[in-house]
Amino acid sequence: MGKVKIKKGDTWIDMTPMSDVMVLLLTFFMLTSTFVKQEPVKVNTPGSVSEIKVPEKNVLNVLVGNDGKIFMSMDKTTDIRNTLDDVTAQFGISLNAEQQKKFLNDPMWGVPMSELENYLKLPTTEMPVAIKQYGIPTDSVPGKEGDAAMSEFQIWIKAAKNANPDAKIAIKADEKTPYKTVKKIMSELQDMNENRYYLITQYKKTED
Question: Which residues, other chains included, contact 90 with Cβ-Cβ below 8 Å and sequence gap of 6+?
Answer without folding.
Answer: 155, 159
